Amino acid sequence: MEDVRGLVNKIQDDFRAGKLKVPSLPEVAIKINKYVGDPNANTANMARIIQLDPALTAKLLQAANSALYGGNGQVQDCRTAIARLGMETTRNMVMSFALGQSFKVGSAVVKDVARGVWHKSSDVAAISYVLARVTMGMVPDKALLAGLVHNIGAIPILHYAAEDPEIKKNRVLINDLIDRLSGKLGSLVLRQWSFDEALTGVPKEILNNNYQPDEKVNYVDIVIVANVHSQFGKDDKEAPKLHEIASFRKLPLFQIGPDASIELLYTAKEEINSLTKMLTSIV
Predict the structure, then answer these.
(1) What's the pLDDT tens digit per position in 185-209?
(2) Is residue 208 part of a domain?
(3) Would 278 be classed as within a structural domain?
């Protein structure tokens, strides 16, 4: 327990001092995130940047050829994939795939915990995508990214744990650290990575059943509801009732009926499974 208290204190001290050790995103992802805001951006130059990372290029082609985005015929090159997806969607997908690479860390136990966190995040992301598609003003692939970052505060915790000779062997302690600290650290990580402000509040508010800054639905609302849905039938503890979640009461689905979102996700289960499979294959 002394080791745990020491690591918690170290993480919290580094957090308060602005010295938290946060791994960098792949350089290609950073460049793409900035490039989309360039008024002179075009698909040819964007393709050149992405192709610097063969792994990201392969995942982007996979996404472009998936049932979600597939048009007539298979795309074979990065430029055509970007043209099919659009630049904003391409940016969101590249950032999503880059996040998965950030979860590749540590020794056997830490890697296994990281894989579990990423798989849970992928499930929440896929549900967020489907919920966003039927919610006016929400962009599905941005909601996908929002779902992926809901537990992003786990990344620095995993990296700190991997450096501790005792804690890196203890799965229970690592998961406990993530449960205790991830929400506090997540928003800081996203700001350090220059993420959209629409997403930076997700980690901090993910378990806030009373979250309701205004009446307009935002990405935090979508991910809160997706996270609750992801618990149904999977966790030992009982999931909150949907009608008790302030974010759920803001969604148009709530007006249809209490079971509308459950029916929607049941109908879209193959799509959700396909999305989750695509994302989890990264880690």
Answers:
(1) 999 899 888 898 899 999 999 999 9
(2) yes
(3) yes
